[in-house]
Amino acid sequence: GQQVMQIPQYQHVQEGEDFTTYCNSSTTLSNIQWYKQRPGGHPVFLIQLVKSGEVKKQKRLTFQFGEAKKNSSLHITATQTTDVGTYFCAGSGSQGNLIFGKGTKLSVKP
Amino acid sequence: NAGVTQTPKFQVLKTGQSMTLQCAQDMNHEYMSWYRQDPGMGLRLIHYSVGAGITDQGEVPNGYNVSRSTTEDFPLRLLSAAPSQTSVYFCASRPTGGRQETQYFGPGTRLLVL
Prior knowledge:
- The complex is a heterodimer of chains A (110) and B (114).
- Helix content of chain A is 0%, strand content 55%.
- Chain A has no helices and eleven strands.
- In chain A, strands 2, 4, 5, 9, 10 and 11 form a six-stranded mixed β-sheet that branches.
- In chain A, a hairpin with a 2-residue loop joins strand 6 (55-58) and strand 7.
- Chain A is globular.
- In chain A, 39% of the residues are buried.
- Chain B is mainly β and 114 residues long.
- The chains are: A mainly beta (110), B mainly beta (114).
């Protein structure tokens, strides 16, 4: 079945350093969504990318969707302690269900 | 709007016990789903529903039952709890199940099966 792979599984950074997580799908995606889960919390929607090659920014966060619509990335510039959490990508499966990557857990050292 | 609510927040069960995890949403969403989250495994879909009276299996349905008698409620039943079902369970909803819709998650239920 369709799989969504996400790397790295963990990332430890010093505050102020940049951070990137990558997402790859075994099949072409109609769209990709990104979620953030704070420790002890629930996933919260961040953004959706639909178009091939699309790039969207939210303050220090930059999201990209690959030209082939099979990969995506989330880049955080100058991380802050408030960025701590697990970042998930999710693509739509054949029946419209969201298929989640396993997530990248980000820790930020002050 | 309260959004997606789940009860209980925490539960401890003994092996073989049954219980129901409650999920409700007040956004009139047609699509609802249940996920379990285990360390290093991400979110895995258990069951989902595209509307009242319609349910279907996700990736890991064994040991769980669901029903959808109303648009608002989507309970998850554990028939005979096993230690392998120790997990955090999230209920989620979105308007119609369309591929480009935002999914809203409840706060989760932390379940420990001894």
